[in-house]
Write a structure and sequence with these properties.
Helix content: 55-70%
Order of helices and strands: HHHHH
Shape: elongated
Structural class: mainly alpha
Number of domains: 1
Largest sheet: none
Distance between the termini: 62 Å
Number of helices: 5
Radius of gyration: 20 Å
Number of strands: 0
Length: 139
């Protein structure tokens, strides 16, 4: 089984989720300033709020992200020590993982979640689009 490849894949997916969470907030704020209506679509905003909410809950419970744990397990199954990575994994790790205590991340994630909540209040998502009903009368 290609555990190292699967670990790199999990790492890349994890990095994409991190980018969505971190860049989602400035996209909402800047997008509203520039008149981009898509940034207020309910699905986008709910996904963003849910993503940061999950991160905050995990941090306050003292748990690491499931994707981090999955990647670590895959690396162990591949026989890789924790410090040995592929080129992609090496650089993505430098981008994503900082050396700080878990409580510091809890505070950082909570502050960021409060900013996301503020953006939700300041730039509310658009109401759900109502589907046009077709009049089926057989005329």
């Amino acid at each position: 089984m290609p555990y190292a490849l699967l670990a790199d894949t999990v790492l890349i997916i994890h990095a994409c989720i991190v980018l969505f969470v971190v860049l989602g907030l400035p996209v909402v704020v800047v997008g509203n300033r520039l008149g981009w209506s898509w940034v207020n679509q309910r699905a986008w905003r709910v996904a963003h709020l849910l993503a940061i909410g999950i991160v905050v809950v995990q941090a306050w419970l003292g748990r690491y992200c499931g994707l981090t744990e999955l990647e670590s397990w895959l690396r162990a199954e591949a026989g890789q020590p924790g410090y040995e990575r592929s080129f992609i994994a090496h650089w993505v790790h430098h981008f994503m993982y900082w050396d700080a205590p878990l409580w510091a991340f809890s505070i950082l994630y909570t502050a960021f979640a409060l900013l996301v909540a503020w953006a939700w209040w300041r730039f509310p998502p658009a109401p759900r689009a109502r589907r046009a009903r077709k009049d089926v009368r057989g005329d």
